[in-house]
Amino acid sequence: MLQTWRQACLKVFDRHQKYLPQSCRSQSWRAFTYSAPCMALQKTVSTMEDYPCEVIRNFSIIAHIDHGKSTLADRLLELTRTINKRVKGVNAQVLDKLKVERERGITVKAQTASMFHDKGDTRYLLNLIDTPGHVDFSWEVARSLAACQGALLLVDASQGVQAQSISVYHVAKSKGLTIIPVLNKIDLPAAQPDMVAKQMHATFGIEPADVIKISAKTGKGVEQVLQAIIDRIPPPVGEPLDPLKAFLFDSSYDRYRGVISLMNIQSGVLRKGDKIASCFTRKKYEVTELGIMHPEEVSTDCLRPGQVGFVACSMKESAEAHIGDTFYRVGHPVDPMPGFKPAKAMVYAGVYPVDSNDFLKLEESIKRLSLTDRSVEVTRETSSALGQGCRLGFLGTLHMDVFRQRLEDEYNADVIITAPTVPYKVLHRNGKDSIVSNPTDFPEPADFASGGRAKGVEEPIVKATIIVPEKYFSAMMELVFENRGTGLEWHALDADGDTSGDGRVLMTATLPLTEIVTDFFDKLKSRSSGFASFDYEDAGYQASDMRKMTFLLNGKPVDALALIVHADNAANIGRRWVDKLFKVIPRQLFEIPIQAAIGGKVLARRTLSAMRADVTAGLYGGHYERKMKHLNNQKESKRKMKRVGQVDLPQEAFFDLLSSK
Ligand SMILES: Nc1nc2c(ncn2[C@@H]2O[C@H](COP(=O)(O)OP(=O)(O)OP(=O)(O)O)[C@@H](O)[C@H]2O)c(=O)[nH]1
User: Fold this and answer.
1) Where is the Tr-type G domain (predicted)?
2) Digit-coded pLDDT (tens) for 594-632
3) Closest CA to 395 of 148, 150, 147, 143
4) Structural domain boundaries, residue 95
5) Is residue 18 part of a domain?
C-alpha cells in the first residue's frame, strides 16, 4: 500500500513537473515527493531494539568508475522492497541524489541506505554505503569503508579489472574488510566472465568459485549477492550496555536543523534527548532527532550498536562535525576511535563572481556548499583583475568542475574559475618551507638568485597506475615521458600470457601532479581509444625547476592569469596561452601587445591590432586635406590612449580563456 502510494507520488511529480514553477522542479523536491510516504513507514521501523548486532550487516559497494555500483544499489533496494520495483525511469540510480550526479551519470557523494531483508525467521538490517568511483573522490570511499565490515568489489565483465578496481581493493583490504567479488554486466555481448574471473584471481588472488556473476541491469544473480552479504560479511561487534561510542563518518547541512551527522554506533545506545559530547572539540549537544536512511530519513526511537543512522543534535556550525570524530555520553568519556587522514587538496583555483558586486553572495554560497562537501578548502583572495574572490582547494579537477556545477545548479551562482594550480613547496634560505598554491605568491626569478630569499622549489608527485591493452602500450609510454614521467615499470596483467595484442599491461610511473591536472586524462583516453584506465596516489614532493610565468597585456601583468610552469615547458606553454589570449581579447582602439614572460624575459608575444574607426566616413568629395586632418587627429588620440590606456579584459574573455583547452 505504502509502496503504491510512494510510487504514485513520484509518477505524478515526474509527469507534471513541467507545469511546476522552475524552483520546484529540482531533485530535492523530487526527493521530498519520494520521502513523504516515509512518514507513514515510520511505524514499521520505529523500533531499532529488534536489531542486535547479529542481524546487522554493514557493507559498501566499491568499483572502478561506471562498473555499475549505483545500478546494483538500486536492485538491492528493490529486492529488499526498500523502494518499489522499477517503473521505467523512476528508480534509475536512486542514491545519486544530486542534479550533477544525475546529469553526468557519476556518483560524487557517498550515500547510505538501510534495508530490511527477511530470511527464514530472521529479519536482517543491511546498511549499504554507495561510494563514488572516480579517483578524485577516493576520500569518500575511504571514509565510507570505516563504517563497514564488508565490501562488494564490483568488476565489469566486459572491461575487466581496471586501475581503480585495484586501488579500492587495497583500501578495503587494508581496513580488514571481507570482500565479496562480484562480476557485473554479464548480459553484455562483450562480457567475458570467465576470463575476467581469471584476471581477478591473478590480480587479487580471489578464487573464481567465490565470484558471483550478475547483471545489475536485469537483476540476474542479485539475490545471490544478498545471500552472500548475509553469509559472508561478519556482523559488527558492540555491547548495548557499554558506554556510548558513536563514530561520525559523514555530515550534511540542513537550513533548519543545522548539521545532520551520519554516525555508526560502536557501543551503547543513543536515544533522542541524550546529552552527547565530541572527543575532538569537547563540545556538548542534545540529540534532537535520530533515525535511519531508508533511503530517505526515517526517525527511530534509538540507534543501537552496529547500526548506522543520522543524528541531529543542534550543532550549528558544520566545522564542529569533524569527520572521524567519536561522540560519547556526557559524563562517560571514552577513548576516541582512530580517525582518518583529513582530505588533502591536490589542486587549487581562484573562484570569482562574474559580476564583482556578487562577491558576498558567492562567498555565502561557497560556505554553504562546502558544508555538504567537507573536502573543499576555502580562503579569501583578491585579484586586481577579477576583484574579490575565494581560493578553493579541491581533490582533483573533476571535483573542481563538479563543485562549480553545484554552485551554478544549487545556488544560481555565475563564476569564473582560474587555471588550477597544485601546491608547491618553496624552500627558503632561512630554513623554513612554505606551501604556495597561488601563483601570485610564488617567488620571482630574482628571489632565487644568490642573496634572494628562496633557495629551491619542490613539486608534488604522484604514483600513477595505468592499465591498457598491449597494443596501446607504446602510446602510453610516450604520454608518460611527454609529461615528465620517471621510474616507469610494467608487467602483463592477464593470467595466461596472451600474445594476440589484446592482453593488458599494468604500468606504474612517477608523474608530477601538475602534469595530470591539465589534459592528461583526455590524452590518455584519446590515445588508447578509451581503453586505458588510470589511477594515482600521492607520492610526496621532489625538487623541480619551476618558474612563475606572468602574462602582460599592454605591458601590464594580469595577476589572475599567472601560472607556475616547469622551465622545460615554459616556452611552449607561453606560446599556447598567448595564442589563447589573442583569440579571446576583443580588439580595442589601440594596439595591444600580449606577452608571456618569466621575470624580465619575454618568451612569447603577439600583437592585437587596433580597431580602426572610419573617421572619414562622413566626408564626401575629394577634400584630401580634411581627410588627412581627421586621420591625423585619430592617430594622435590613439597614441594617447595607448599611453594611458588600460586594457580592459572583459570577464567573458576570462571565462572563454579559462574554459578553453
Ligand atoms: N548492460 C548493462 N549495463 C549496466 C549494468 N549495470 C550498470 N550498467 C550501466 O552502466 C552504466 C554505469 O552504471 P552506474 O551504476 O552509474 O555505475 P557506477 O559504478 O555507480 O558509476 P560511478 O558512481 O560514476 O562510478 C549505466 O549506464 C548503467 O545503466 C549491467 O548489469 N548491464
Assistant:
1) 54-237
2) 899 998 899 999 998 877 666 666 666 667 777 788 777
3) 143
4) 53-232
5) no
Task: Answer yes or no: do 560 and 412 share one domain.
Answer: no
Centroid of ligand 1 to alpha carbon of 514 (angstroms): 31
Provide the pairing of β-strand 178-184 with 150-156: parallel
Please state the φ and ψ torsions of residue 456, each to the nearest 5 degrees.
180, 170
Q: Look at the chain and report how many structural domains it folds into.
A: 5
Which residues does a 6 A CB cutoff place in the pocket of ligand 1?
63, 65-71, 93, 105-107, 132-133, 184-185, 187-188, 215-217
- Residue 286 alpha carbon to ligand 1 centre in Å: 41
Please tell me the distance between residue 195's alpha carbon and the centre of ligand 1 in angstroms.
20
Distance in angstroms (rounded) separating the CA atoms of residues 230 and 223: 11
Is residue 132 a known part of a binding site? Answer: yes
User: Of 478, 476, 147, whose CA–CA distance to 309 is shortest?
Assistant: 147
For residues 318 and 377, state if they share a domain: no
Q: Which of 62, 70, 109, 167 to mutate to test the pocket of ligand 1 (most atoms within 8 A of CB)?
A: 70
The residue whose CA is least distant from atom 12 of ligand 1 is 66
- Name the pLDDT band for 186 (thresholds 50, 70, 90): very high
Would you list the DSSP string of 169-209? Answer: HHHHHHTT-EEEEEEE-TTSTT--HHHHHHHHHHHH---GG
Is the residue at 448 inside a domain? yes
Tell me what percent of the residues of the chain surpass a pLDDT of 90: 34
Question: HEC states along 256-279?
Answer: CCEEEEEEEEEECCEECCCEEEEC
Q: Which atom of ligand 1 is found nearest the CA of 134? A: 25
| Lowest mean pLDDT segment, chosen from 388-402, 442-456, 484-498, 586-600 | 484-498
Q: What is the DSSP letter of 615?
A: T
Residue 251: name the closest of 160, 371, 333 by CA. Answer: 371
Q: How confident is the model at residue 189 (pLDDT cuts 50, 70, 90)?
A: very high
Residue 293: CA count within 13 A, CB half-sphere: 25
Whether 270 is covered by a domain: the verdict is: yes
Across 463-473, average pLDDT: 91
Residues 559 and 535 in one domain: no
Buried-exposed string 251-275: b where 16+ CB fall within 10 A, e elsewhere:
bbbeeeebbbbbbbbbbbbbebebe
DSSP labels, 431-463: S-EEEE-SGGGSPPHHHHSTTSSEEEEEEEEEE
- pLDDT tens-digit profile of 88-101? 444 455 555 566 66
Question: Can you tell me which atom of ligand 1 is nearest the CA of 106?
Answer: 24
Return the SS3 of 623.
coil
pLDDT at 638: 56
68 is in an annotated binding site: yes
What contacts 589, CB < 8 A, 6 or more positions away?
610, 611, 613, 638, 641, 645
Average pLDDT over residues 405-414: 86
Q: Which atom of ligand 1 is nearest to the CA of 71?
A: 15
Whether 71 and 220 share a structural domain: yes
Nearest CA to ligand 1 atom 32: 185
